[in-house]
Fold:
Amino acid sequence: MTMKLYGFWRSLATYRVRVALALKGLEAEQQYVNLLQGAQHGDDYKAVNPQSVVPALVIDDGSPLFQSLAIVEYLEETWPVPPLLPKDPLGRARVRGLSLIVACDGHPLIVPRIRNYLEREMHQDEAARNRWLQHWTLKALEALEAHLAKERETGRFCHGNAPTLADICLAGQVFAAGYFNAETTAMPTVMRIFDECMKIDAFDRAQPLKQPDAPKNPTH
Structure:
């Protein structure tokens, strides 16, 4: 199958899809959409994803898939090995719940369009915007820590001893903490699991700064 992945080097949602593809041994042609230059608002990309956000994955029949978790679940259903969701319904619900803490509650509040709105419409200066970014980044990580530190299902990874969708989301949110200089020492379980993830090639080579479109001296 031929696939095209539309994304951006520092997009954490794109990171999730890159990791999932790599874990499953799949290749996708990279199409770079520079969010900072507004390329997502161009007619060409809006024809792929009318919401003007990344990622989008176009599969060989031309169907554009959108929203990172929906894309990963498509990959899970079509290429089930290695599994990114547990077999049992309760385990799947837990992994999805942990994932959604990041993908629905934390990450959407720190994306470029939110930062731009804070600046242009709410007239917040850089210091205020940075406080916002740090606050919501850490809130998601704190929620993950509260679950992972106490729940018996936590193992080497978020759920047991193999990476799941929850670990993919966790790793991306830790990268967000790095973007915004958010202190993560109060999340030892999160950081332990992140370190385990980064020992895996799929997580490591998908990381933002290792992407071909990443600048040599990035500013976040």
In short: Residues 4-82 form a domain with the Glutaredoxin fold (CATH 3.40.30.10). The longest strand covers residues 4-7. The mean pLDDT is 96. The radius of gyration is 17 Å.
